[in-house]
Amino acid sequence: MRRKDGKSKRRALRTKPVFAYGFRESPETVDYRHPCLNGSTTPGHSTIVSLFAGCGGLDLSFLGGFKYLGKTYPVLPFDVIEAVDNLPDAAECYRLNLGDHCREADLTSLPISELPSADVLIGGFPCQDFSSSGPKTGFAGRRGQLYKVLVEYMREYQPKIVVGENVSYLARLGNGKYLQAILQDFEGEGYHFDVWELAGPDYGLPQSRRRIFLIGVRNDLPGFPVMPRATHKNRHLSIAAALTDLEMISDETVTNQSQYFVASRASCGGGQGDHTNEAHKVAYCIRANSRGRIQFHYALDRRLTVRECARLQSFPDQFVFPFTTQRNLTLIGNAVPPILGYRVAKSVENFMRSFKDAAVSSNDTSHGTFRTGVQMTRSHVLQPELF
Ligand SMILES: C[S@@+](CC[C@H](N)C(=O)[O-])C[C@H]1O[C@@H](n2cnc3c(N)ncnc32)[C@H](O)[C@@H]1O
Fold first, then answer.
1. Is ligand 1 within 6 A of the CB of residue 57?
2. What is the pLDDT of residue 263?
3. Are residues 28 and 318 in contact, defined by beta-carbon separation less than 8 angstroms?
4. What's the whole-model pTM score?
5. How many angstroms does the Cα of residue 387 sit away from the middle of ligand 1?
């Protein structure tokens, strides 16, 4: 299809996916999904408030209870008691898949006192103003100051642990001055922070995606979570290994597999989003603002489908995206890959268990020492950009 100016139009092949259930109600997930998805809380679980929750990638990481490429990620002892996002699509997709505890609200106007107190605060604050593919406006951008909502929450409720997430370029923008300013504001509320830069492929993600996690522990708590060890260093999972079984499927027998942009390559050559993936390598990064320019399949003469992008982001196949191609891809591209976030969540869980155990044994005078955490440095963020 051609526009008047001769450029090709990126048209979506289907406008609506077909599905009967979201992840939380799927008969396929009933045996292993998290009880919190049905609105129940579990005694002994730590509570979470999730800000800027999107469609729930980071929340699924902390809840666990999903399968991805044949591997089970067991339920973790966290309950998300409230999630907030101002994008109606994000909140609706979240509720469809992860539960009714997601509120659609603008965090710049929602009084913090309306949120519940929780043990853990998580939030992938908006990153467009810090992204290498964005305007790089930092704090001057419209969304550059939204991290302050996390600061306000910390001041009001003093959660034990805070996990912020963002693009790794934040650590390099302005020679690190923006990240340092954010950490200073966070630490000013009585916390100490470390920054973990995780490269998705080193943790089994079949996509080149690198993100930073800002991990904060309240100053009165002993120790620190341990940065997750890479499981797939030098043995990255290829895009072909992740998507082979979808090659012959072009309908909605797998939800979202019929949705993709029908488009020729950019008329002026291989611009961003117009590359063809290579079967034996990890996929190119899935971008939220693709505007129809999603990379091409490694073997088929078309761009990647919505389901293939969700797979490359490590969403389980039962996690459905109910909107049009572009709206779904925005949610997927914005998300924290659940298997990557799961490693962070597991590390936070181990740490929280250590001080819970220590608190129990402090009544018993024969055991009474806390496990010490890793040396806190911010050196992880200084690695060269590999992806
Ligand atoms: C990077 S995405 C977070 C993705 C999420 N962590 C996940 O894993 O799916 C940032 C989110 O912040 C939301 N957001 C931006 N401004 C907001 C505001 N003022 N109030 C609430 N949410 C906002 C966006 O709609 C977007 O979903």
1. yes
2. 73
3. yes
4. 0.90
5. 23
Gyration radius from the chain CA atoms = 21
Q: Residue 378: what pLDDT? A: 46
113-152 pLDDT, tens digit per residue, is 999 999 999 999 986 666 666 656 656 655 668 999 999 9
Domains, the chain: 23-229+337-382 (3.40.50.150)
- 55 touches ligand 1 (CB under 6 Å): yes
93 catalytically annotated: no
Instruction: Report the alpha-carbon distance of residue 261 to residue 292 in Å, rounded.
Output: 6
Query: What confidence tens digit (pLDDT) does each residue in 356-378 have?
Result: 777 766 655 433 222 223 333 44
Phi first, then psi, for residue 76 (nearest 5°) are -105, 155
To the nearest 10 degrees (0 to 180), the angle between helices 325-334 and 88-98 is 80
Cα of 86 from ligand 1 centre, angstroms: 7
Say yes or no: CB of residue 8 within 6 Å of ligand 1.
no
Residue type, 69: L
CB 62 within 8 A of CB 76: yes
**Residue 135, pLDDT score:** 59
Considering the candidates 127, 268, 285, 309, report the single residue annotated as catalytic: 127
Cβ–ligand 1 contact at 164 (below 6 Å): no
From the CB of 142, is ligand 1 less than 6 Å away?
Answer: no
Going by their DSSP bridges, the two strands 210-218 and 161-167 should be labelled as antiparallel
Task: Round to whole Å and give the CA distance between 207 and 210.
Answer: 9
Measured in Å, residue 134 CA sits from the centre of ligand 1 at: 16
